[in-house]
Design a protein that fits this description.
The structure holds 2 protein chains of 2 kinds. Chain A is α/β, with parallel strands linked by helices. Chain A is 35% helix and 19% strand. By secondary structure, chain B is α/β, with parallel strands linked by helices. Classes of the chains: A alpha/beta, B alpha/beta.
Chain lengths: 165, 422
């Protein structure tokens, strides 16, 4: 499993209210949610994001509400991976559960700027900044979590296991 | 090695003799909660888990409280989704408008959470029930769907911070000031992945509503849960509301804590969180002159009867400043009725406040009190992130009901002790 794309770079405490403002939570339609992703801190995000792009942030990414709409909006916008120093716990759980790969790697956060092209290998945890040629290492996902993410999330993973049993 | 209160509850529900911080466990759930924003996503996911119906129709609670009474057609469709699912699965604890209250005030009031219970809710403020000695934590919609299908959830056992409380609050200081003070001290990720355990002789001096407020905002410090010991105050509340026998867990004397923080409640001052983080706190004497446009008193954090009484004590015989809209949101129908019978509504309306039916409404910028560009609100709610209550260039200042009421009268952020001077 791999990801490769251009980086959108954010700071500390990116909360779920700016990832997807509550005024848009009267729908759970993924495409509608994605149209408003990040708009309260970065109106250009949704205009510029391309499939496969990567989001990099600092501490406590995804703090605030438990809305699963937040990782859903990020994933649906085309983002293939989030890299941050730390995550708020509910966001972390939700991202994994819906199959959005997210990595904790403070060193990579130090060495990645907006606009850099970054590739990620989830099986080894290797993060490569192709722009600066720097390589970083995060904890790789264990095999079950790689399987869970490639199944599109917890529900798909459990359904698949049910079929195999 | 000894266990914390939280670890004991988790061990019991995982059917294990003991657990340690960092351990991954699968635990049985006593209640699974969702609202009109999170439950539709869970209901959509539910069939994918391959179960025809919920694990226990008495252990699922559905509360359409966020955008209800329905604020628009899309919100109406989401509430309808809950109503239909509740009907199809014969969910006992579905509370529509008329019975509905803000979920985290409603569940304890209806006796749906007992001491020693393990509760998950697809709402981050589910941690409120720690006030009753329960382990409760917020999760997302997929976890809620999985919980409804299987009656179980996985957890990573948290380590803990111990808050050793002594003394009692000064006049007009309450649980809200304590938790804002703590978040200001440790930061919005100061308790990330951890439990916040509140103990010490000072706990006895906090009423149950203060404890609900403190546990409610544990998430704003990044915590997994906040929890209080089950003492006479908690037992009195449980006896009045919950038919279940309380199961009381005390931390072992040799339980391990990452940090121990001593707090003398008598030293806590009225505290205000400035935009745009709950950790951006100032004590009331450091606030300066901040002119405001709106005051919101209510929410899952501060919509309890003692909160309304505090606000009424200040508003009695006074008028809300001309340029301020003051909105009061009792958290449940029962609290609403009690406030009415106590004459609080006369005080609120005579002073120029509007009193609403229970709803989460303005707290998350949903409806019933949205801010325009450049407007400022003093609010007893729990978050002041960018755009939280409306326009991206509006501002929310978090405070206690007493500070909010004093500010409504003054027209700027005001010290309740100085309201005479306004």
């Amino acid at each position: 499993m791999q990801a490769r794309g251009t980086v959108f770079r954010y700071g500390d405490n990116v909360d779920t209210d700016v990832i997807i403002p509550a005024r848009y939570l009267n729908t759970s339609n993924h495409k509608e949610l994605a149209q408003h992703c990040m708009e309260d801190i970065d109106q250009n995000f949704i205009k510029q994001v391309k499939k496969g792009d990567i989001m990099v942030a600092d501490r406590n990414f995804g703090c605030g509400s438990s809305r699963e709409h937040a990782p859903i909006a990020i994933k649906e916008s085309g983002i293939s991976c989030v890299i941050a120093r730390t995550y708020a716990r509910i966001f972390y759980r939700n991202a994994i559960n819906i199959g959005l790969p997210i990595l904790e790697c403070p060193e990579a956060c130090d060495g990645i700027k907006a606009g850099d092209v970054v590739s990620v290998d989830f099986s080894t945890g290797t993060i490569t900044n192709e722009t600066t040629k720097k390589v970083f290492h995060s904890e790789p996902f264990p095999p079950f979590m790689q399987d869970l993410i490639s199944s599109g999330g917890l529900a798909g993973y459990i359904a698949k296991r049910g079929q195999q049993a | 090695m000894g266990m914390t209160m939280t670890q004991k509850i988790l061990a019991h529900h995982a059917n294990l003799p003991s657990v340690r911080a960092g351990q991954l466990i699968m635990a049985d759930l006593d209640m699974v909660l969702g609202n009109d924003i999170t439950a539709p996503v869970a209901i959509n996911e539910f069939p994918k888990f391959g179960k025809k119906t919920v694990f226990d129709k008495d252990k699922v609670a559905l509360v359409p409280d966020h955008f209800s009474p329905n604020k628009d057609i899309k919100a109406a469709e989401q509430c309808k989704c809950l109503r239909t699912f509740a009907g199809e699965h014969d969910i006992t604890n579905y509370f529509d408008v008329g019975q509905m209250g803000i979920e985290h005030a409603l569940l304890p009031e209806k006796g749906l959470v007992g001491a020693g219970d393990l509760v998950i809710g697809a709402d981050s403020h589910t941690c409120t029930y720690g006030a009753l000695g329960a382990f409760s934590t917020g999760v997302g919609s997929t976890d809620m769907a999985c919980g409804m299908a299987t009656g179980q959830a996985w957890f990573k056992v948290p380590s803990a911070i111990k808050f050793n409380l002594t003394g009692s609050f000064a006049p007009y200081v309450c649980g809200k000031d304590l938790i804002l003070h703590i978040i200001g001290m440790i930061g919005v990720d100061g308790a990330l992945y951890q439990s916040m355990e509140f103990v010490g002789e000072g706990v006895a001096n906090m009423n149950i509503d203060d404890r609900f407020t403190v546990a409610n905002m544990a998430i704003e410090a990044g915590a997994k849960n906040g929890i209080f010991p089950v003492d006479e105050v908690a037992l009195a509340y449980l006896k009045e509301h919950c038919p279940k026998e309380p199961v009381i867990y005390e931390a072992d004397p040799d339980a391990e804590y990452e940090r121990v923080i001593d707090i003398d409640l008598s030293k806590i001052k009225s505290t205000v969180s400035f935009p745009h983080l709950p950790s951006n706190t100032r004590t009331i004497d450091e606030v300066g002159e901040v002119r405001i446009d709106q005051v919101v008193i209510g929410s899952c954090t501060n919509g309890h009867i003692s909160d309304l009484r505090q606000a009424a004590a200040i508003l009695k015989g006074r008028k809300v400043a001309k340029h301020v809209r003051a909105l009061i949101f009792p958290a449940t129908q029962e609290i609403w009725k009690q406030a009415m019978h106590e004459g609080l509504f006369d005080i609120f309306v005579d002073s120029g406040c509007a009193v609403s039916t229970p709803t989460c409404g303005p707290c998350l910028g949903g409806h019933m009190g949205i801010l325009a560009e450049g407007e400022r609100a003093v609010s007893t709610t729990n978050r002041n992130f960018v755009g939280r209550m409306g326009h991206v260039k509006s501002e929310v200042y978090l405070a206690s009901p007493a500070v909010a009421a004093a500010s409504a009268v003054a027209g700027y952020i005001a010290d309740p002790n100085k309201v005479e001077e306004v």
